[in-house]
């Protein structure tokens, strides 16, 4: 029946055991295009594209019918199914009739299966790329909404704290204790290490300059005031944002995914009071303690450098430190750390509550809790510096 | 139990007071409408099934009914109480009369089973600690988890977690029990046990049960009222006793669902 026959070799070099798959076009007299499928059609070796068929469909005389000839067909797998469905789609869009009789029956069944459920057209539109302006607009609106969400969350936390003060908050005391243990005692090790090292770093930085003027003793002033006013609070906050803020977000995010938060809400127990309140309280209570401890550790680090490198005695070093550091410096730092504690707890809990409903969203929530926490801590630190400067503290 | 109970239930249905009324409810996420213009009533003592294909909005409807999502339009009333228009405090009081069994149990991972079941008792009753413990143990025993009081959710199997979830949902002897796919992920026997348990609790505590399900065996075993949600047209296309729907519903979509499309497969 084939009047003229053109062969398409679509395969790469093959081991001799395989027959490469081939697609050839033939024309039957009644304007029927016959697709002859021969050889082995294997996924791992690629398959013919519909473009060749499309090209053939536009050649004169324009065919009205498409048929298949699989007499020479060897083994086949999904590659052939994919090719045939593509051809069918092409024919449907061009309004051609297709005669699948020439296909093996198993293949016909698979093709039918792939075509039974009509394509959900609106499924593509949601995922498809949108114009830049629309994306910028959507992002802006989402950002504005997130600020609204943040303010609402802050309000809810304030109300929960108010109810706690009034003694009407509903939470389990044991949860508060666990949270206190987790962000207090359990954080001791890391705070010790980091603060001691920060103290030594400050001391080294100061020593290099001060030694030139024979003023090594002022390293004690530098480290003492630096730790007490800013570095103690700052380093504790950054450690706790990475450690506890992320943990809060992950815990609450997981609870969101497993519907545990819904279960609380539908039981008439406020998740704000039950979950957020103990965590915020724990950090507000523990941050000042950790900060004070961090101050001391930093000074100890400074003293280690002072005695080990600069040849100052411990007594001299600490006398100088106590002379330089005022109670105001320490209290200022401790106050800052309390505020940082609120920031860490709120950003951790907020991101946990905003978490999506899948496991990767939990990871995102933890990351975003740390980022939000640290950004706001640094912003707050800057604001404190400004305000303290104006007030002359 | 099966048919005779269901028949008696149907005969008496008109006499029982209306427990839940849903009027012109439209559910939407932003501009995407999940279901529109839903109207149905549930009478006290019904086991009401919300059925439909996967992803058609069954669980979403349940989440609207328990106040986790807000309707885009329409309202949900419990008896004479308009739940949609109520303020947060009135809602909270109403919520205490509900029990909810979540799809995966949603037990609080940081608490033991006894603490999970005991929490609502601690929060909303004046029971002493010993009494709370005793009631929690009873509820766990009712669902076949006697002796597991001090286990954590992560230490027990998925089916047991689900049963513990049911025990927690039943903790305050709710008037309305909502179950989100109670039998999904359970073997046929456990699923049958859970069905029987739901019926027993309904009969003995006089509760109304709302179940989201697409498990046919379970639907026919426990349901005496239902609605069918169609994801294509975004509307509810049938309501009534599932057994009646199977026998008389003319809509091919409902019929195919309830027969697992067996007839068409046979002719094919």
Considering residues with a beta carbon less than 8 A from a beta carbon on another chain, report the largest interface and each chain's count.
A-B, 17 and 23 residues
Shape of chain B from CA axes?
Answer: globular
Biggest sheet of chain B, strands in spatial order? 6-7-8-3-9-10
What is the count of β-strands of chain B?
10
Termini of chain B, distance in Å? 36 Å
Task: Name the quaternary structure.
Answer: heterodimer
Please give the share of residues in helix of chain A: 55-70%
Give the % helix of chain B.
40-55%
User: What does the average pLDDT of chain A come to?
Assistant: 87
Output the radius of gyration of chain B: 19 Å
Most strands sheet of chain A: 6 strands, mixed
Characterise the protein shown here:
The complex is a heterodimer of chains A (393) and B (268). By secondary structure, chain A is an alpha/beta fold. Helix content of chain A is 69%, strand content 8%. In chain A, strand 3, helix 1 and strand 4 form a beta-alpha-beta unit. Chain A starts with 5 loop residues before the first strand and ends with a helix. Chain B contains eleven helices and ten strands. With 268 residues, chain B is an alpha/beta fold. The two termini of chain B are 36 Å apart. Chain B is 41% helix and 24% strand. Classes of the chains: A alpha/beta (393), B alpha/beta (268).
Q: What is the strand and helix layout of this fold?
A:
The complex is a heterodimer of chains A (393) and B (268).
Chain A: E1 6-9, E2 22-28, E3 32-41, H1 50-57, E4 65-69, E5 73-76, H2 78-94, E6 97-99, H3 105-116, H4 121-127, H5 132-165, H6 173-183, H7 188-212, H8 218-257, H9 260-266, H10 271-308, H11 314-324, H12 327-353, H13 359-391
Helix pairs in contact in A: 2-3, 5-10, 6-10, 7-8, 7-10, 8-10, 8-11, 8-12, 8-13, 10-11, 10-12, 12-13
Chain B: H1 2-12, E1 18-29, E2 32-43, E3 47-52, H2 58-65, E4 73-78, E5 81-82, H3 88-95, E6 98-101, H4 113-124, H5 129-142, H6 158-169, E7 176-180, H7 188-205, E8 208-212, H8 216-222, E9 225-230, E10 235-239, H9 242-248, H10 252-258, H11 262-267
Parallel strand pairs in B: 3-8, 3-9, 6-7, 7-8
Antiparallel strand pairs in B: 1-2, 1-4, 4-5, 9-10
